[in-house]
Design goal:
Blueprint: E1 18-31, H1 37-52, E2 59-63, E3 66-71, E4 74-79, E5 82-88, H2 89-99, E6 105-116, H3 124-132, H4 136-139, E7 145-149, E8 155-159, E9 166-172, H5 173-176, E10 185-192, H6 196-206, H7 211-223, H8 248-267, H9 273-279, H10 284-293
Antiparallel strand pairs: 1-5, 1-6, 2-3, 3-4, 4-5, 6-10, 7-8, 8-9, 9-10
Amino acid sequence: MADVYDLSPPVSPPVTLDCLSASIDWLTATVTKPARLPFAEQVVNRWQTVRAADGYPIRSYAANGYMGSYVDGITWGTRADGAMLRLSGEMAALYAEKALVWADNVSRIDFQVTLQEPREYKNWAHIALAEFMQDERVRAGLTQYQSITSSKGGESVYLGRRASSRFYRIYNKTAESDGLWPATCWRFEVEYKPNRSQQWAAKVRERSWTPEDTRAVVARAFADYGFSLPCTYLSRGWRDRSPREPTDDQRRLEYLRKMIRPMIHKLKDSFDVDILAEALGLYDDQTQEVESLQ
């Protein structure tokens, strides 16, 4: 468990890639103390409202006895013994540290670093796997690994068991995000569960957490299996450059542009523009306004 407490900068690796993002990428926590519950619920409701304003709908949530609501990246549910909060992706990066102030138990916390490789041919999943295979625990089968190619063409390597207290992922973030991230981006993640998750949560609480702290967590974890994270110390002036995920409304607009627009273009040869607009319901609001005035 030494990796929990050693955050000093390691010896610089021979390769340094451009770091686009370094953050907490997932948090699952519970709030059990009655005095904290009303405050926590009020805060999470405010986060969900802000997220919904970006074009993401708030939906009902029910699982494991918890009942509540979900909006992209933020899940909240309550039951008789307390409440559960789950943050992921952009919302975890934004709110995880705030949530840890009042969270009582943390069952999962993930740290990620996303780097951009300037060379197309360089495959960091393969490079890391080659290093992992030199570790006696991996060679003896005590630590499992998996290498896969997704349907999107992205390479991924997983080290450890999902049920263990520490699980590693390296994957092509460009392919996984359908090109939202710039070309040749690779993500390095470490997922912690009890008891490591509790210890890391305490570590985040007790210091003014920085992106460099996140980088150090990921670097130290991978170094335990002989792999040097290809990223050096992040300076205090470093800024995250993660691209923003498109909202649901933006995805719908893109679908309209790609799928519906070509169809409308063909129909213009047979129908007047007003007829097409009426078929799409573009005049519905105007019709209702006229009817209400009458």
